[in-house]
Every structure is written in C-alpha cells, then in structure tokens.
Amino acid sequence: MRIVDLDRETVKQGLRDATLVLVDVREPHEFAAGHIPGAVSHPLSSFDPSALPEGKRIVFSCAAGVRSLRALEFAQAAGRDIREHYRGGFRDWVLAGEPVE
Fold first, then answer.
1. Runs of H (alpha helix) within the chain
2. % helix / strand / coil in the chain, to the nearest 5?
3. What is the DSSP letter of 23?
C-alpha cells in the first residue's frame, strides 16, 4: 500500500486553495458532532470507493489517522489511485485550535 501522510498545514492549504477534497471517514454521529470545515462525509462503515469523486485530489481524514488508512487500503484495492491522508486527523485539528463546523 502506498501512503502519503499529510500534516495539518498541508491540509489547511489544500482546503484554502481548493486543490483537495477532504473525505472524513468517521461515522455520521461523529461528523455531525463536529468536523473540519469543507470536509465531506463518507463513513468507513458503508465505504464505497466508487462513490468518491473522480478527477480530484482526495485526502482521507478520521479521528486520529487509523480509519483513514483503512479507507486508503479499500480505495487502492478498488483500483483508485488515492494515497494521501491527514495523519493527525480531527483530534490534531481540534487540539491545534482550528475552527470546527
């Protein structure tokens, strides 16, 4: 499996300049309780790599970086060329005092 760990600043810049789609793979209740502004929800429990947007730079995120790795594994097994995830995830975002929706 090919993995690229992204840090918070890289994710922030990608969201700011719209060069990435941040896909939050936490469960719906977690996403509803708070998420990174601009993230889209695709829960790991019902994850379907074919439902992800085509032709866009996708970066997976979860609470702390574990489920996002599973999403990478599923996406790559389905033939998607997706390698990036936000290693620190939502916890890192919140602990840094970043805004939450």
1. 8-16, 28-33, 67-77, 89-95
2. 40, 15, 45
3. E
Q: Token digits for 25?
A: 């793979």
Tallying the residues shown for the chain, one arrives at 101
Question: For residue 95, what are the CA distances in angstroms to 30, 88, 89, 101?
Answer: 16, 10, 10, 15
Q: What is the pLDDT of residue 1?
A: 76
Find all residues with CB under 8 Å of 73, minimum gap 6, and list them.
1
Helix or strand or coil: residue 5?
A: strand
pLDDT in tens, 10-57: 999 999 999 999 999 999 999 999 999 999 999 999 999 999 998 999
Cα dist from 86 to 1, 61, 91, whole Å = 16, 5, 11
Residue pLDDT, tens place only, 82-100: 999 999 999 999 999 999 9
